[in-house]
Amino acid sequence: MSDALTKIFETAQPFCIIQKQDSEDVLILEGEALQCDQIDDIPRQKGVSDQGKSYDTISMIPFSQIREKGYQALNDGEQILTLEIKRFWDLAVEELLEQLTHCDIGLENGFEYDMTKAEYETLIRRIVEDEIGNGEGANFVIPRTLSGRINDFSVQRALSIFKYLLENDYGTYWKFIFYNGTRYFIGSTPERHLFVENQKVKMNPISGTFRKDKAYQRRSEFKGDLLSFLNNPKEINELFMVVDEELKMMSRMCEQGGAIIGPLLKEMSKLIHSEYLLSGESDKDVIELFKDSMYAATVTGSPVENACNIILKYGKHSRRYYGSAILLLGRDEKGGDTLDSPITIRTLEVDNDGQFETAVGATLVRDSIASEEVLETEAKSAALLASIMSTGKQEVIPPLLSRLANDDEIVETLQFRNQYLSNFWFFKQETRLHSEFDNRHIKITIIHNGDDFVYMLQHIFNSFGMDTTIVPYQDYDLQRDKSAITLVGPGPGNPNRKEDPKMKKNYTIVDALLENKKPALFICLGHQFLCHQLGFTVAKKKVPLQGVQEKIGLFGREERVGFYNTFAPVNSELSENYEVSLAQDKQELLAIRGENFIGFQFHPESILTKNGDAILKEAIAYLLG
Question: Interhelix angle for 612-623 vs 453-463, to 10°?
Fold first, then answer.
C-alpha cells in the first residue's frame, strides 16, 4: 500500500474515497473533521486554487437538515459531518483494489428490520388509503431500516466492504467510503441529486425498478420482461411524478431556463432503473441551489413539504442520513464554485464499534401493491447486504442491457413515453417563447398553497414576459395585491375540511376575489375552492388521479392534461350559468369559465399536460379581456 494511504488507514485519519460513474480512477480526499449545525456553517473557499480544479469540503447532510426550509423532521441530534479537505489526488481503481484486502465479515447476531414484512405491508396500505386516498399527496417514501453489529470492526473491514462494492456493483453514480473519525458511510448510490459547474445545473430523478432476479438464458425472454416493465403504467406514472416534483425545484433554481433529456435506463448489478436528466442554467450561489433542492422527491414524496409531514407522522425514528445528500464543494480552474451531490441511498452507516444501519424505501403511489413494494425494497438493498454477507469477489452478473443495444423496439418504447408530454419542458425556454404579453409588464400574483408547482407556473409566466410574485396563502391580502391577475394555486388537503386554517383562509380569498371581480385563475385545489364557493359540491373521487394523464374536452377542443387530485367538483344545474368542460361521464367539472375567472382541475404546468403553455397563454388573454 502506498505510504499516503497507509498513513491514512493505519492512523484512522478522516478520509473519503469516491468512484464516480464507474470511472477508471477514484478520488481520494484527506482532511480534518468538523461538525456543523447549519449548511451555511460549512467552510467555503474562494478564488483560483494553486492546484487548478480543487475540492474544499465534503459533508454528510442529515435528513433533519430539511428544517432549514421550514419543513418538519424527526431529529436525534444528527449534525452535518464535514471533512475540510487538505489533500486530494486521483488513483487508478485497479491500483487501489490491489492495495485493499478482503476480510471475513461476521455479524454478532445477524441483522433485523425495524418492521417485519407484514408490518411494512400494513403501513403501505394505510398510507395509500389514508393519505394518498385523502388528497395529502401523490406519492410518499417511507423506508424500512435494517441494523446489526459487525464483529471486530476496523478500518480494514470497512475498506473490505468498499472493495466488494467496487468489484461487484456497477452503473451507480457514486461508490464511496467516508470516515470522519467516529463513523463510516459506505455506499453505492445510483442517483445524482444535484450537480453544478460553470452555472450548469443538473438533476437526475430516478424511479421505476426492474428487478434482475432471473437468470435469463435467452435474449428474447429478457426483452419481453423489460418491455413489460417499460409499458407498466404504474412504473411510467411513478417516474413522471418525480420528474414533475424535481421540475418544481429546477424552475425555482434555473431562471435562465433548461430542458429535459430522456427517458434513460440505468443498470446496476441487482436492478435496472428508469430516469430522466434535467439540465438548466443558473447564476445563483451553489449553497442556495442546494437548499432549494432539499430533498429529492424520489426519497421523500410529493409535494415535498407535505411528504415530510407524512414521514414525520409514520416514521418510528429519525432518518439520520438516509434520503438526504452528500455535498462535495470545490472550485473549477477559473475559481468558480462547483457542487456534486449524490443522494444518500444504498448507504451503510457504521460506527467505530461496528454497529450499523441502512434504510431502504419504495415509492408508494395510488396503485401500489404492498407485497411488490416489499420485494422492491429487498432488491434495492441486495447489493449492499451482499457486501457485508460475502467473503471476497463474487461472480458478477454481466449487464443485461448490452444484449438489447440499439434494439428498435426498446428505443421506440422509451421515446414514445414523451409523445404526449409537455412541449414546453423538453426544450430550452429562455428563447423559445415570444408572446403578445412581452414588454407589457403584466403582473400576476400566485398564491402558494403548499405545492411547489407554483414555481413551474412562475417559470412559464416569466417566459411569457410577465412579472410574477409568489405569496404564501396565509400572507395574501387582496388590498395589497396590485397585479392584473391573481392565481389560487394547487396544494394537498381536503377542501371540505373548512376548519382547516388553510381551507378557511382560501375560502375567504376566493370570496374576496369574486366579490371584487378581480381577474383570477384557479388550479386544482384552487379550482375546488372556486367551485365550492360558486355553489357546487366538491366530492371525493372513487379512485384518486395522482400523476395521471387523460384526454379531455377543454372548452370545445381535445387536450391531453395531467391530474393530481383526490377531490373534484360535481356537475349540477349550476353549470348552466357558466362555460364548463366536463369529464366523459358528465359527473365532474374539469374546467369552468366565468366573466372574471377560470378554473382548471388539471395542472397545465405539469409535464403531463401536452399543451400547457398554450392553455395558460389562452387563459391569461381571456382574463385580460
Answer: 70
β-bridge partners, 88:
29
Catalytic-labelled residue, pool 254, 524, 531, 532: 524
- Which one from 136, 191, 376, 605 is the annotated catalytic residue? 605
Size of the chain in residues: 625
pLDDT per residue over 20-40, tens digit each? 999 999 999 999 999 999 999
**The 3-state secondary structure of 348-415, one letter per residue:** EEEECCCEEEEEECCEECCCCCHHHHHHHHHHHHHHHHHHHHCCCCCCCCCCCHHHHCCCHHHHHHHH
User: And the C-alpha cell for 461?
Assistant: 409566466
d(CA 182, CA 518): 60
- In angstroms, the CA 440 to CA 105 distance is 69
Q: Are strands 337-342 and 192-197 parallel, antiparallel or unpaired?
A: antiparallel
Helix (H, G, I), strand (E, B) or coil at 38: coil
Q: How many CB atoms lie within 10 A of CB 485?
A: 24
Q: Cβ distance 307 to 241 under 8 Å?
A: no
Distance CA(547)–CA(235), nearest Å, equals 11
Distance separating alpha carbons of residues 169 and 174, to the nearest angstrom: 11
* Consecutive H or E run containing 165: helix 155-168
Q: Are 268 and 274 in contact (CB under 8 A)?
A: no
Relative to beta strand 443-448, strand 107-113 is unpaired
201 closest CA partner among 134, 161, 246, 241: 246
Q: Once rounded to an integer, what is the mean pLDDT over residues 171-190?
A: 95
Torsion (CA) 247, 251, 256, 259 in degrees, nearest 10: 10
| pLDDT per residue as tens digits for the range 488-526 | 999 999 999 999 999 999 999 999 999 999 999 999 999
Q: How many CB atoms lie within 10 A of CB 558?
A: 8
605 annotated active-site: yes
- Count of CB atoms situated within 10 Å of the CB of 582: 16
What sign does the CA torsion over 183, 186, 190, 194 have? Answer: positive
Give yes or no: 558 in active site: no
Cα distance between residue 389 and residue 146, in whole Å: 14
Contacts for 89 with CB less than 8 Å, ≥ 6 apart: 4, 27, 28
